[in-house]
């Protein structure tokens, strides 16, 4: 029987406002792809990202353009060549994984991970703001073991000092979202190291980060916007110490697994991250992240409401997805 595909744009309100160096948002805009066959349905969710030239309408149209090939039975391997890396391919790829698991009765976890899957400790993200406001956010979440702090502007040292003093027992990741410059990176890195920061994520703009090859790394530096697929990794050796794998960048779980394995071969640390989406988007990433060094899959915690059923979060521990959700 031919497959049937549906594509839906959905919006989920964020609890408050989510702010990074490039701007603020009050809702998560996602596209959900559902592929059905023989009484079974698989779903995948993606988050179009303006930073990469994506729009809701553009990603919706890109998936719709694949309707005939999906109906005719395209598999995940062929999909890698049929669609470019990005949000649209992610939604289709994850829907195909879910559909395969539903039809076969074999959980995705069994296909990609050799042992029992476990709950993971995820970072919890603090929005960019003035130092005092960020200290208040950090203080309110000081019981969480891992915080991810959005920075990337003037007065970042004040922000770093404020959050480390407000949450002294938490490990902290700083995410500059390409907001630092050649002029301030050395001083900012040194100060972050003095304050015991665990990791700094994408301090400089992608493609304008060659200085990282020639300056000290007093703490690990992680590529985010600079890495999308496995083919990007060779040029990052010597620049970065770790890479942040996001399904919406890699274009799905299939490509993300390839990226993870190649990154390990080249000696990179692994972070598995997310855009701001629902539990449906996080579910495959939780399985991908089983051996990650850092996990940042807090998207649903930032929402005013999530899908039902959703992932189960207990504090900062996120459990593997129930098969009713995905996989």
UniProtKB/TrEMBL annotation:
Obligatory cofactor(s): Mg(2+)
Protein residues bound to Mg(2+): 175, 201, 224
Annotated ranges, domain Mandelate racemase/muconate lactonizing enzyme C-terminal: 131-222
Class of enzymatic activity (EC top level): isomerase
InterPro entries: DgoD-like, Dipeptide_epimerase, Enolase-like_C_sf, Enolase-like_N, Enolase_C-like, Mandelate_racemase_C, Mandelate_racemase_N_dom
Keyword Iron-sulfur annotated: no
Cofactor, how bound (note): Binds 1 Mg(2+) ion per subunit.
GO function terms (MF aspect): metal ion binding; racemase and epimerase activity, acting on amino acids and derivatives
Domain of life according to the entry: Bacteria
Keyword Magnesium: yes
EC number per UniProt: 5.1.1.-
Record-annotated active site: 150 (proton acceptor), 246 (proton acceptor)
Keywords from the UniProt entry: Isomerase, Magnesium, Membrane, Metal-binding, Transmembrane, Transmembrane helix
Transmembrane residue ranges: 266-289
Annotated family: Belongs to the mandelate racemase/muconate lactonizing enzyme family.
Protein name: Dipeptide epimerase
Organism: Mesorhizobium intechi
């Amino acid at each position: 029987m031919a497959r049937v595909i549906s594509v839906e744009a959905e919006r989920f309100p964020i609890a408050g406002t989510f702010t990074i160096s490039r701007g603020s948002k009050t809702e998560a805009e996602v596209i959900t792809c559902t592929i059905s066959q023989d009484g079974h349905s698989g779903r995948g969710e993606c988050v179009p990202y303006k930073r990469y030239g994506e729009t809701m309408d553009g990603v919706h149209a890109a998936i719709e353009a694949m309707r005939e090939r999906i109906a005719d039975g395209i598999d995940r391997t062929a999909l890698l060549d049929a669609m470019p890396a990005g949000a649209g391919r992610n939604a289709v790829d994850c829907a195909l994984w879910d559909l395969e698991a539903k039809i076969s009765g074999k959980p995705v976890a069994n296909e990609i991970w050799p042992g029992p899957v476990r709950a993971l400790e995820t970072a919890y993200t603090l929005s960019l703001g003035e130092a005092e406001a960020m200290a208040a956010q950090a203080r309110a979440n000081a019981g969480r073991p891992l915080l991810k702090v959005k920075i990337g502007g003037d007065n970042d040292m004040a922000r770093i000092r404020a959050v480390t003093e407000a949450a002294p027992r938490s490990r902290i990741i700083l995410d500059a979202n390409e907001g630092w410059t050649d002029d301030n990176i050395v001083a900012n890195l040194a100060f972050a190291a003095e304050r015991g920061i665990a990791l700094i994520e994408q301090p400089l703009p992608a493609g304008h980060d060659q200085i990282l090859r020639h300056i000290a790394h007093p703490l690990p530096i992680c590529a985010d916007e600079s890495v999308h697929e496995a083919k990007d990794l060779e040029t990052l050796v010597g620049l970065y110490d770790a890479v942040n794998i996001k399904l919406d960048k890699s274009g799905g779980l299939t490509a993300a697994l390839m990226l993870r394995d190649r990154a390990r071969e080249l000696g990179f640390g692994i972070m598995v991250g997310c855009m701001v989406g629902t539990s449906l988007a996080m579910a495959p990433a939780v399985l991908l992240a089983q051996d990650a060094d850092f996990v940042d899959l807090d998207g649903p915690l930032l929402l005013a409401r999530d899908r039902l059923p959703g992932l189960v979060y207990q504090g900062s521990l996120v459990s593997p997805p129930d098969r009713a959700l995905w996989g």
